[in-house]
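Name: S-adenosyl-L-homocysteine hydrolase NAD binding domain-containing protein
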Amino acid sequence: MSLCLESPVVHSVDFVGRKTEAQQLTEMLVERLRAAPFVREVCFDDEQGSWVCTLANGGRGRLALAAPADPAAVADRTHRIVATFEKGNLRDRTSFFQAVTHLPFTDSEMTAVTSELPLTSTLPERWPDKPLADVGLVLTIHHMRDFLVLVNSLVELGVDPAHMTVIDKEYQYANSRRVDAHLVQRLGITVWRYRDLRAGLEDHVSRVTAAGKRSIVMDDGGYVLPMVLRELPESAGHFIGLVEQTTSGIRKLAGFGLPLPLFSVAESDMKGMIESYGIADAAVRNTLRLLPDEKFEGQAALVLGFGRIGREVARVLDSRRMRVAVFDADITRLVAAHEEGFLTGRSLTELVDSHQPRLVIGCVGSRSFGLEQARLLPPRSFLVSTTSRNYEFALDELREGSTAVTDRGVLGTSYLFPDGSEIVVVGHGMPINFHFAESLSNRYVDLVMAGLAVGAVAVAQGGERLQPGHNLAATNEILAESGIVDAYYQLYGPAITTATGSGHG
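Structure predicted for S-adenosyl-L-homocysteine hydrolase NAD binding domain-containing protein:
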């Protein structure tokens, strides 16, 4: 027997736009609900000024377009869709709210976000000959608003939306369902979930091959090519190149003989020198947002990994007056951390035992911290990951070694050990800078988004510089030649000095 809900449940979605956009968006939502298989009928209730959705199983939902009670507390021209589930079972409620939250962005919202990514949005002006017209694209990029600007530019550069496939990584972003809705409803792009990656790739190869084209992979975490090479080797020849954004993705390619060119934005000078601090700062800020009542100043912290991100995380924590220790299995990086003034040690277990960190931030990208170390942490300690998916901590070990495991909602998962101590894996071990957030500001991430598009164009155009395998030197050359770093400097560098030698500080 299905579980019935006794009290109405309410969900709301805020969006920004003109009154006509609000009405159009609401009408589109109503029509989608009418077409949904779980809905029997949708009719307008004049008395209450809302739409009543009678569900196929006898349940009922209600939909209304409203205004925020305090306009001063939200952005100008904010509208609110309020969905109330009045009766029915849990399955009906889930379907109803999923449909309501699958809401594309308005033109006003897209105009605003496009203006925040001037480098990415103006790239088509550099290549008016549409160099991507003869390729398909598989994209596994974070479902955030900046991604939509990148997609729009790729379309303007020639990619047919029918020959694009987006893999939804299924992270809990701030606007993940709205981004997904925009891709599908506004742009007509096929979206597959990460859990169905293989089926999505098979579908993409079939569609694009039928059009007489081959494809480029644009990845953020090494999801696509390892799957192709391991499980779909017969499709490897369909892909002409890979543009990778993260070092974790590069690591996942280790051991594979790459049959195509790798354009490594991940390891480029551009990304490493400019973006790393922003990611570290976003990770720490989002951690503090989820733990507003904790006091970390003066407390001990441990950073796992002293690569580009780990180094910046350690510096950010130090600037927030924490006592920071660093561990890295690579002795060269460990020496670098020591010489920058951080506490270090050759044994992770001994370092945890002596330093007693209340905050552990993992920046390695593989199992860097397990049950042995977790049991040595002081009470009310927190584990935080900055790397792709939930690979940073040995969560299976923590679960097996706990007497109780509790889902703490948006905060994460808590583990109670036999001695009575409890730790919290914040964000359930997923990357904290994306957990119900959008990580970097759009203007900050603009350079990397533009770099991904430059990489796709370079792969599509071919040439001797990009050969099968790693092409880091060529990547740096092509990114420098593209002019996007120069444009970034013009936007955010020093003020232009006048002819008389004066300038503005």
